[in-house]
From TrEMBL:
Record's keyword terms, sorted: ATP-binding, Cell inner membrane, Cell membrane, Membrane, Nucleotide-binding, Translocase, Transport
Source taxonomy: Bacteria, Pseudomonadati, Pseudomonadota, Betaproteobacteria, Burkholderiales
Record's protein name: Glutathione import ATP-binding protein GsiA
Major subcellular site: membrane
GO molecular function, one term: ATP hydrolysis activity
SUPFAM superfamilies in alphabetical order: P-loop containing nucleoside triphosphate hydrolases
Source species of the chain: Caballeronia cordobensis (Burkholderia cordobensis)
Quaternary structure and interacting proteins, as annotated: The complex is composed of two ATP-binding proteins (GsiA), two transmembrane proteins (GsiC and GsiD) and a solute-binding protein (GsiB).
Length: 252
């Protein structure tokens, strides 16, 4: 579904340029959940923005599916407080992508989208300031899914939320992946989050991928690169039990 080959992304600065992403290659199969993990500034969010078409490549190539339409790829951003227009009701937020893409039956689609992310019809005409952080992120997810994408890009979707709400959103994303068969790429600095949702993970540092491995290898700490080991240590308390805890809350 996603094929990124020797990608380079360069930004201009006052003193010249910065190579934010250098020679990054990855392949994600249809229906797979793939993780990108690394510290701030490692280039992982820049890669995600390139996949979304928000940042151009300076070199290399990118292919996503067959690019049947603009709405095939949708993105959920990190900050649920900044991602929603403060003067738009939830209804207008969800109606806008339908109008842009010429999709009809809008009222029914809006109600179905809200129900799918666990929000009732009562939320339809509320403004963002009337919603909690978790509710705002659910609206952001509904906005991304309402145009029926094949690929969902997730940029630290839980990092701005309280721990208890993080578990709810992760369980929601896991259910949506299972029900819709979505291809997902999840960016996070937290290997516990990656381990819960993803099948494979690429570890980024200084704009490069230093290691790609399965989540089973992460869980068993069977890693080759010292930087990956340090990330594991930084993810305090990461055990198989974290995944079990989240699964137990799935129906909550």
């Amino acid at each position: 579904m996603i094929d990124l080959d020797h990608a380079r992304i360069r930004f201009k600065t006052k003193t010249g340029h910065v190579d934010a992403v250098r020679d990054v290659s990855l392949r994600v199969e249809e229906g797979e959940v793939f993780g990108l993990v690394g510290e701030s500034g490692s280039g992982k969010s820049t890669v995600l923005r390139a996949l979304a078409g928000l940042t151009p490549l300076h070199g290399g190539s990118l292919r996503i599916g067959s690019r049947h339409g603009r709405h095939d790829v949708q993105m959920v951003f990190q900050d649920p407080y900044g991602a929603l227009h403060p003067r738009f009701t939830v209804d207008k937020t969800l109606r806008e992508p339908l109008a842009i893409n010429g999709i009809g039956d809008q009222d029914a689609r809006i109600l179905a989208a809200l129900a799918e992310v666990g929000l009732g019809a009562a939320f339809r005409f509320r403004y963002p300031h009337q919603l909690s952080g978790g509710q705002r992120q659910r609206v952001s997810i509904a906005r991304a899914l309402i145009v029926e994408p094949r690929v969902l890009l997730l940029d630290e979707p839980t990092s701005a939320l309280d721990v208890s709400v993080q578990a709810e959103i992760l369980n929601l994303l896991r259910r949506l992946h299972r029900e819709r068969g979505l291809t997902m790429i999840l960016v996070s600095h937290n290997l516990a989050v990656i381990g819960f949702l993803c099948q494979r993970v690429a570890v980024m540092r200084n704009g490069e991928i230093v290691e790609q491995l399965s989540v089973d290898a992460v869980r068993s700490r069977d890693v080759a690169h010292e930087y990956t080991r340090r990330l594991l240590l930084a993810t305090e308390g990461y055990t198989r039990g974290d995944g079990t805890r989240l699964e137990s809350e799935q129906g909550a």
